[in-house]
Amino acid sequence: MTSSLEIATAGQKIDLNRLESILSKYYKRGRDALISVLQEVQVEYGRIPQESIEPIADTLNLFPSEVYGVVTFYPQFSLTPQGKCTIQACRGTTCHVKGADKIISTIENTTKLKEGETSSDLKFTFKTVTCVGTCALAPVMVINNKFLGKLYPKKVADILSQYEKG
Amino acid sequence: MRKDEDMTRLGSVEELNIYRESILAETDPNKICVRICMSGCRAYGAEEIRVAFNEEIKEKGLEDRIEIRKTGCHGFCSRAPVIIVDPKGIFYQQLTVDDVEEVVLETLVKGNIIDRLVYVDLKTGKRFPFTRDIPFYKEQTRNVLRNCGKIDPTNISHYIAQDGYSALTKILSTMSPRQAIEIIEKSGLRGRGGAGFPTGKKWHFAQIADNDTKYLICNASEGDPGSFKDRALLEGDPHLILEGMLVAGYAIGAKAGYIYIKAEYSLAVERLKTAILQAEESGLLGENILGSEFSFEIKVKEGAGTYVCGEETAILEAIEGRRGVPRPRPPFPAQSGLWNKPTNINNVETYANIPSIILNGVDWYSNIGSERSKGTKVLSLTGKINNAGLVEVPIGIPLRKVIFDIGGGIPEGKRFKAIQVGGPPGECIPESLLDSLLDFGSLETSGSTMGSGVIIVMDEDTCMVDIARFFLMLAEDESCGFCSPCRLGTRQMKDILDRIVAGKGEDKDIELLTILERVLKDASLCGYGQTCAIPVLTTIRYFQDEYKAHIHQKMCPVGRCKINYNL
Lengths: 166, 567
Prior knowledge:
The complex is a heterodimer. By secondary structure, chain A is an alpha+beta fold.
């Protein structure tokens, strides 16, 4: 699914004005601003558009390869578009001990997505995360920054169907 | 209590003291106050309950008499959502929005206790309406967490009223940087991020480094799965961390500090930014703090989501805007750290220990704890345990006491099997070793690898081979890929464990795993690679029968691993 999205968005032109307004704040700031710039770009476009990499590199006096290296290192950044709803299932140790595998398979079955994939209608992105620090309420998932704890498969399915509707 | 808007810039130590007295004079200790956890309990509907309380109070015209306070974590997370009603300290648990009206009418107005919401001890069946009597709290020593769950973390005057920023005023008016470091050295405080390096020594190295520019970093990249103590501290008492950093900045001679915080902790970021802004407006951060010569600024740097960025040299790379790959040492950060300047890096909880040491002195602090390690440790106690939550105990407490007295034992009458202590670099400890003491070090040195304070309890339904495989899966995923022992070793070990849990294990696999663990330990660049396979080693050591059952009998003793019998 992700790959078809990549192809679908490859030809699309992005609105560079929005990028410009982010970059203007960081002009010639140097390398230490890179992660902050990328975080803003990720929020603005829901991804790091390929076309943004060279302008970012120019602004911060870096090589495009250095920018690309940082983008691909940190899981927060993605080169492909993300869904409107990001489902993050925790697979930390406590969640694992408390049955995170069942939560993850329920999400996979309900959304028909595998870990790291985005639905073609851009509704859902499904990710797993190492730990969100809400272990006492394990197993946990986070949907668009809302923490949902003490999950079991039926509860997950119910929650997801609500998001499916709304 | 004063509102934030009243806050003016404080120009001297004296002005801060006068301000504190004025807050205390205005505070009515008998006012009814509902303290609602707005930290972990949010995952279980605390926000909806808070809104319901506010609406109910407004509707009944009780706003002047009753305060609804947003606080940090109360600690007893498995009973979420939890509220505490002051002044009596009534403890209500597992609240729902439907309970709110009754709580307002019965408890807040009439002063009656609602039996249904009271905590009942699972072992004895005894009811505990008041927080102070509950066994979970009674066995704890809450020093670092003293304000957590009590004060509103978004209101600086709450913190100041609790002797907040008194450690700062004490060092500014009575101590030289050298004297401040001496106190921390003598206190015996060891780093709370996991490695347990003496904090005073670290500060000393940074102080003697010859450079006009020095940096301070607070490691809030709490990566160990199962750990949430730093998040709870940052969300529940952010000014405590800022004050700890101010003391450290003064001591080592740094003018700027960074808090490197992990991406998932959005609420903690928000709380920190609010706290920093308030401290700046009050003259407690920035140029010439409280009219003194000392200037210090703190910036928040949000991480972008990797585990290895909890490693101190990887943090340096990340703040500089590079891939978060650890640096070889030496040089150590104290000599050459951020932008090659001397840098001191401590964990959130380490900074949180500083103000109380400065205020109460070395003797007070070194009375708490074990022979080798002083003070308390905040633990994230989770897994198959009745009382999961945030716990603070003196270092040196027997593990059994933590699991069975504070933790209340294993749910559903199941049998205890093991605990995993100290996050991924920690050990899996069986029942026979539960009388070991909580400490830095390892079981061989008669303590456990307390590490960052994660304790994950496993019951008889947990397959220890599956747990080992889980840790290697995590290790492989989170390895930064820079050095080959870690990048390739974790993959090889995971493949072997995959084979074993699938019933395709061979005789030689256990030995192979042990050899690979040693290679990782000897040849990896950073602490992450060196320690990430320890759970494999300790599960082999203490639960070898389970490995053998998978390998020889092709069966999983607890029936968790789906072994294909048609091999």
